[in-house]
Prior knowledge:
Helices cover 67% and strands 2% of the residues.
Amino acid sequence: MKKCAYCKIEVGGNLKKCPLCQSKLTGPEEPVCFPTQTILKIQSFFYKLQSFIVWTLMIVALGLDFLFGLNPFPGFSFHWSLILLMWMLAFEFGIMRLFKKGFSSSRILTLFVIIVLVMLCITAYYFGMLTYVLEWVAPVTLIGTMIANFVLAMIDKSGNSMVYLLSNVLVGILPYVSLYLLGKDCPVAWIVALLVSVIFFVGAIIFKGREVVSEIQRRLNM
């Protein structure tokens, strides 16, 4: 067993330094007292590797754009590296944080779609394609999300998916109401999204009536 000459304690295992004063331990090593977290070490390595790659891409892009004046998008005058920087930061500090233990599949899916759509709208604005994204890409993506949330709510036993299924109603109604109040014609894709959200809400009541009522009461503190 190893010993610390300063703290006068004995330390089991194969530690190199004293856990109290960090001084070098003396004496023979012993078998490890606790199991080694091999999986956590591998996950930590890959997380650090992807983080290094992301930051390398951001630094290189900023250098090529601002220092060398490289513009891979002729005809556009904006700094493309800032768009890439936005996506990389959203990936590193947004999307990567979603894949944690305790996050339900519906939560991961919904937040992932929201982050990507926000980034996509900002990018489309600088490329002059914002109208196309808002009228077609966004509603079609949200329709797919609503379908996935409905399926997850039907097979989920803990009830964690129900809140995201019910939020589909707002996703379908709010754009339509907003365009109606502004006096603008609602694109066909958003009308389909409205119908899909109402259909899935009716389906939730039919298949999960009690869970729908309890979820609404819980969220409204009734």
